[in-house]
Structures are given as C-alpha cells and as structure tokens.
Write a structure and sequence with these properties.
Blueprint: H1 2-18, H2 24-36, E1 41-52, E2 55-66, E3 70-77, E4 82-88, E5 91-96, E6 102-104, H3 107-111, H4 118-127, E7 131-135, E8 144-149, E9 159-164, E10 171-177, E11 183-194
Antiparallel strand pairs: 1-2, 1-11, 2-3, 3-4, 4-5, 5-6, 7-8, 8-9, 9-10, 10-11
C-alpha cells in the first residue's frame, strides 16, 4: 500500500510538470506494469559493458528466462572465450564453451542476484519503496526511464535504471550504478522477445 501511494505521488508530480493534457506518465506506467508484472519468460541478446579500475570490458550475452527461477546465459567475448551458465531452481552449472567441462555452482553463487537479467530489475522495481518513473523530454523520442534501489550490500550494485521504448515497451538499456552513482554495468539490448515459448531442455542442469 505504501509503495502504491508513493507511485501515485510520483505520477501526480509528473502531471504537474508535463500538464494534465499529457497524461503519458500514468498511461505508460500502467502499460509497463501490465507487461512486466507477470512476465513469464523472455529471450534477449545484449551487449554488456563492465566498468572497473578505469577500464572497460565488453562482451555479449544471449539470455533466456522462464519464471520463476530458470535462467540461461550464453557468454561470448571479442577477446575470445565463451561459456554457458544455467540456473534452474536450487541447482546451477557453468559449462565451458571450449572444453565442454561442467562446473556445479555452489549455494553462494546461486543466491547471488543476476543484475544482468531484466527479471532482476523488475523484481527490485516492483518490491522497492524507492522507485521512480520518468517520461522526460530530454529522453530520445520520449522513452521511459525507470529506476530502483537494489538494497544490496555490494557497493557496485546499489541502483538500477532501465530505459524502455515508450511505444513498443521493449527495453533499450539497463544501467547498474555503484555507491558513488557511477555506472558499473551497462546492458544494451540488441534483441528482445517477451513470453516466447522456450524449449525447457535448455534449462537442464
């Protein structure tokens, strides 16, 4: 209830600054809510940039997700190397793309939230008391920018922002910020499909 009141206040503020004749903020939020609140699955191809010690590391991921706890990430890098990570409930494995060797993920790894996954953003967004939704004229083509605090003790995973296309509601870019409000991860979406039928076998562990 408290979260709903806070979100209503945010939407009222948007109305005041954009004019009541431009109630896009409220309508768009409803559409985002209906689209992602009960998301059953998605597939995505993303380019990830990781920032650390004044350096950047780029790689691509093909991601598969099925609610509530099935994930698959296929990793490849420009500098070489590939692997596949699969999580299914309380089990998980890492498979080397070069040797096909499998490593079982321990309980600590399974408990870690995967901030590269869109599902993790919305898990935080819909449960966090500190959320915001903005439709800014400064954003290209009036895209929607959502943000949420992670509640994580990890100093490199303090806040997440998601940029969404206001027409298609597809994600464009997700950014994870550290405790100094500097980007630590940037995930740019190349392809995205929601609630697409996915072969269950790809989540086998």
């Amino acid at each position: 209830m408290q979260k709903i009141k806070k979100m209503s206040l945010v939407l009222m503020i948007i109305c005041l600054f954009t004019g009541c004749g431009k109630m896009k903020g409220y309508n768009v939020y409803e559409r985002v809510y209906l689209t992602y609140k009960n998301m059953e699955s998605f597939t995505a191809e993303v380019e990830v940039t990781s920032y650390s010690n004044n350096s950047e590391n780029k790689y691509t991921l093909t991601q598969y997700y099925k609610s509530p706890d099935k994930q698959r990430s296929e990793y490849s890098s420009e500098i070489g190397g590939s692997n596949v990570t699969v999580i299914n409930g309380g089990k998980g494995k890492l498979v080397s793309g070069e040797t096909n060797a499998e490593i079982e993920l321990d309980s600590a790894a399974l408990k870690e939230k995967n901030y590269l996954m869109l599902s993790t953003f919305f898990e935080n967004y819909f449960s966090s008391e500190e959320t915001a939704v903005l439709t800014s004229g400064n954003e290209k083509k009036g895209n929607i920018r959502l943000s949420a605090e992670t509640g994580s003790s990890n100093p490199y995973r303090k806040k997440i922002e998601l940029l969404i296309d206001s027409k298609t509601l597809k994600p464009l870019k997700m950014t994870v910020y550290d405790d100094k409000n500097k980007p630590s991860l940037c995930i740019e979406y190349i392809k995205f499909e929601i609630n697409k039928n996915t072969d269950e076998n790809i989540f086998s562990v």
